[in-house]
Each structure stands twice: as C-alpha cells, then as structure tokens.
Amino acid sequence: MLRFEPEFFTERNRDIDESTLRAISREVRKDILKMTSNANSGHPGGSMSVTDIMVTLYYYKMRHNPENPKWEERDRFVLSKGHVSPALYSILARCGYFPMEELKTFRKLEGSLQGHPDMLKTPGVEISTGSLGLGIGAAVGMALGLKISKLDSRVYCVIGDGEAQEGSVWEASMAAYHYNLDNLCVILDNNNLQIDGPVDEVMSIYPVIEKWKAFGWHVIEIDGHNFKEIKEALNEAETVKYKPTMIIAKTVKGKGVSFMENRAEWHGKALPPDLLKEALKELGEIV
Questions:
Q1: Among 23, 133, 181, 286, which residue carries the largest CB count within 10 Å?
Q2: Does 11 map to a domain?
Q3: How many folded domains does the chain comprise?
Q4: What positions does the domain Transketolase N-terminal occupy (predicted)?
Q5: Cβ count near 174 (within 10 Å)
Q6: In sequence order, what DSSP letters do the residues of 257-269 get, joined into one string?
C-alpha cells in the first residue's frame, strides 16, 4: 500500500506524478466497493465518479495534517454530496487520519464511519453533510471566516449535479461572489446521473457553465478523470482574484468498473458478492 509521512501533506502542490495518483485512485475504488458491499448499503456509483478529483485534492493540492486534523493553517474540504462518503473515508484512512481497519465499520452502529460524514465521529471531517445543498453554504461560511481571520487557507467543496437542483446551492453561489471569496473552489461532479435517472431529464441544470458565469464565478471545464487537467484546474483556481472558482468536472458514474459505468441503478446500491468479485478483478485485484 502506498503510504506517505504526515509531513508530505503539509505543503501545497506536492511532487506526485499522475501514475501514482491513478494507482491510489484504483485502490480507493476497491475500498469503496468493499465498504459498501460489506455494509450491503451505500452509494458506490457517485463515490467512484468523484474519486480522481478527491485523490488529487488530498494527495497533490490541499495543505492538511493527518496527525493534527484541526491544524489552523490547513485547507478545508467539504463533501457537500455527503452520500459519497466511502470515497472520503478511504482517502482519509490512506492519508493516515485513522487505521485502514476502520473501513470495515462503514455504516455499522458501533463504528465511526457513518453513512454520511459526521464531524463529531470521524477525524478529518470538517462538517457533517448529507442534506443536499447544505455543504456548499458551509464552505462559503468557512471561506468568509478565513478571510476575516486573515488566514491564507483555501476551501474546496465537491457538489453533485443532482444536488445543483437545490435552491440553497444558488443562494450560496450568489453569496460567494458577493463576498469576493477567491479562496473558495467548488468542484461539480458532473456525471449527469442521479438516483432517478439522467439529470437533464429529472430536472435539467444545464447550461451549467453559463449559469455559474452569470453568478460571477470563474468557471473551468475539465475531464474529471484526467489527472493533468484536474491539477491544472486546481492550480488555475489559486490564481483567480476577487471571485470564487467553479470547476465543472465531466465524470462517469461507476468509473472503473465496466458494468457500473453510466448506470443510475448503482447510485445507491451495493454490489452482491459475485459482482463484487468481478468488479475487483477489473480493478486489478487478485480475488
């Protein structure tokens, strides 16, 4: 297993190549499938679509400290689409926030890894999320607080495209521009699927680029599985002044497992044992 010393994470823009990020993402996807199947519940599809983005944030971009989760100078991460907690838990464990063994307690009553992130139970979780539209508002508040405190820390927030149907997302977006929050970067996990089917059929959010531009944001569109593009977008966001940045990341629900990709039914359903074995083989595990 790839392990890094805690000191590795305390500076931004770390020297880590794309092949290493890809290898970490592959292991995270295995964790996601094992966790959800072990619990026989959870949300594997969206967890797998956002994996590459979150791995790049934690291993390349964000300044954080697994030995001191409340380190004042840390960058903050908010998982607004809290149902994809398996991706976050795997990454936190692999960074060293808690033992890997704890992943087996996902969605267990006695465990610290609840179905949605809980800031009171899990080291490294900045705020409890789960009610869609809540996290981006909290991220705006964090970014404003950091500005008032004159700290150069940044706030990163991941939202879902189904989540972008919530009115609170747009209220928060309006506030972020009003307060010139150039320390805020939001990433839209744009896999175009939600629990009931394609986003553009359930309640279209398009054209998303034009909408966030109209709200005053700096907008970047990328392939959310291309590590070079993810890194470049995050770097560009740091150069933007007096306005927040929205990264529209085109992704694939269930990314990495052929029979799960672009299938809405894997939004909130765990793989049974036979399909878990098949999926892990696709991800390169000997089972």
A1: 181
A2: no
A3: 1
A4: 33-284
A5: 13
A6: -TTTTT-GGGSS-
pLDDT mean over 158-171: 97
Residue 8: inside a domain, yes or no?
Answer: no
Kindly list the distances between the CA atom of residue 183 and the CA atoms of 32, 144, 213, 234, in Å, as whole numbers in the listed order: 30, 9, 17, 12
Whether 1 has a pLDDT exceeding 70, the answer reads: no
Domain around 200: 18-282
- Residue at 157 is within a domain: yes
What number of residues does the chain have? 287
Asked if the peptide bond before residue 198 counts as cis, ω within 30 degrees of 0, the response is no
Tell me: pLDDT of 6 over 90.
no
Q: Quick count: other Cβ atoms within 10 Å of Cβ 269?
A: 18
Nearest to 192 by CA among 184, 176, 203: 203
Q: Are strands 76-79 and 155-160 parallel, antiparallel or unpaired?
A: parallel
Task: Please report, as a single letter, which amino acid is at residue 198.
Answer: P
The answer as to whether 10 is a domain residue is no
Of 53, 51, 62, nearest to 89 by C-alpha is: 51
Q: Which of 107, 162, 103, 168 is nearest to 135 (CA)?
A: 168
- What CA–CA distance (Å, rounded) separates 236 from 151? 20
Q: Does the reported pTM lie above 0.85?
A: yes
Question: In this structure, what CATH number is given to the domain that contains residue 205?
Answer: 3.40.50.970
One-letter amino acid at 164 equals: A
